[in-house]
Write a structure and sequence with these properties.
Elements: H1 2-17, E1 18-20, E2 26-28, H2 33-50, H3 57-74, E3 79-83, E4 90-93, E5 97-101, H4 102-107, H5 111-126, H6 129-141, H7 144-150, H8 162-168, H9 182-198, H10 204-217, H11 224-228, H12 233-255
Parallel strand pairs: 3-5
Antiparallel strand pairs: 1-2, 4-5
This protein binds zinc ion.
Residues 120, 124, 180, 185, 188, 229 line the site of zinc ion.
Length: 264
C-alpha cells in the first residue's frame, strides 16, 4: 500500500505537481492555488469572527505603515488585521491575509523588528508552504482521499477539516498545533529578511528581534509564537550570515528613497 502510494505520489510529481520555491528549492505542490487561497480566506474570516479585532488607530496605523512597503515588494492587495491578543504572534495566510497580535506590537522596539516578523510570515505565503505541507500530509495520511475531503469543504467554515486548517499554520486556534518544518522556517527567514531590506527596513533588526523573542521565551510564559518559531542559535546564526546580502539590498533601497517612517 505504502509502495503504491509512493508511486502515485512520484507520478503526480512528475506529471503536474513539482514546483520551485522562490529560493530555488524543489517542492511538491498538489493543491490548486485557488483552493489553498480560498482556505486561507475562510480561515481569516473565521478568525475575525472569533477573535477580538483591535480598532485603535495608533496600532492599526503602525502595522499598515509597515505592511504596505513590504507587500508592495510582492504585489497584490493584502488585508492586514490587528488582533486583540497578548501573545507574541503574527501570521500570514494564503489569499493575502496578515494578522498581527497586539502582544507582538507591544514587544517590538521599532518598525524594523515588526517588519522582520511580517516579512517572515509573508515569506511562508510566497513560498506556498501551506500548499506544500498540505501536499505532504496528503501523502502521509492516505493519498487523495484526504485531498478530496479538503477540497469540497474549502468554502464552508464549520466543516473545514483539521488537516486543512493545520496546513495553513493557524492550527493553534483550532486545537491542533503543527509547526512549519525547519526547512520552511529557514526559507521564510531568508525571503523575509531580503524583503524587509528591499522595502527600506533595517535587516539588522531581524537578528535583534529573534534575540528578543528568545529572551522572552526563557521566562515563565512561553509565547505562542515561539512554539512554532523557535528562536534558536541556528536561526539567529543563519540570519546573521544573510545580513551582508540583505544590507546591500537595504543600501539600494535607501538610495532609491525608500525610508519608511512608522511610529508606534
Ligand atoms: Zn514561520
Amino acid at each position: 500500500m505504502r509502495h503504491k502510494l509512493f508511486l502515485t505520489f512520484i507520478a503526480s510529481c512528475l506529471l503536474t505537481a513539482c514546483a520551485t520555491s522562490p529560493t530555488g528549492r524543489s517542492q511538491l505542490l498538489m493543491m490548486p492555488d485557488a483552493e489553498v487561497n480560498q482556505m486561507g480566506l475562510q480561515a481569516f474570516t473565521d478568525l475575525k469572527k472569533t477573535k477580538p479585532v483591535n480598532k485603535s488607530s495608533r496600532y492599526n496605523r503602525f502595522v499598515s505603515c509597515i505592511a504596505e512597503p513590504l507587500t508592495r515588494q510582492v504585489g497584490g492587495s493584502w488585508e492586514v488585521v490587528v488582533f486583540e491578543d497578548e501573545t507574541l504572534n503574527a501570521f500570514a495566510l494564503p489569499g493575502n491575509k496578515i494578522g498581527v497580535h497586539t502582544g507582538l506590537i507591544k514587544l517590538v522596539d521599532n518598525q524594523d523588528q515588526l517588519a522582520a516578523v511580517i516579512g517572515h510570515e509573508i515569506g511562508h505565503v510566497l513560498a506556498k508552504h501551506s500548499n506544500e505541507r498540505l501536499s505532504q500530509e496528503t501523502a502521509v495520511n492516505g493519498g487523495l482521499s484526504v485531498l478530496s475531503a479538503v477540497i469540497p469543504v474549502a468554502g464552508a467554515s464549520s466543516v473545514l477539516t483539521q488537516v486543512g486548517m493545520s496546513a495553513l499554520g493557524v492550527a493553534a486556534e483550532y486545537g491542533v498545533l503543527l509547526p512549519f518544518s525547519r526547512t520552511h522556517e529557514s526559507e521564510a527567514d531568508s525571503i523575509g529578511v531580503d524583503m524587509m531590506a528591499k522595502a527600506g527596513f533595517d535587516p539588522k533588526q531581524s537578528v535583534v528581534l529573534w534575540q528578543k523573542m528568545s529572551k522572552a521565551s526563557s521566562g515563565q510564559k512561553v509565547p505562542e509564537f515561539m512554539s512554532t518559531h523557535p528562536a534558536d542559535e541556528t536561526r539567529i546564526t543563519d540570519l546573521s550570515n544573510r545580513l551582508s546580502t540583505a544590507l546591500s539590498f537595504y543600501k539600494q533601497a535607501q538610495a532609491a528613497g525608500k525610508h519608511p517612517n512608522c511610529k508606534k
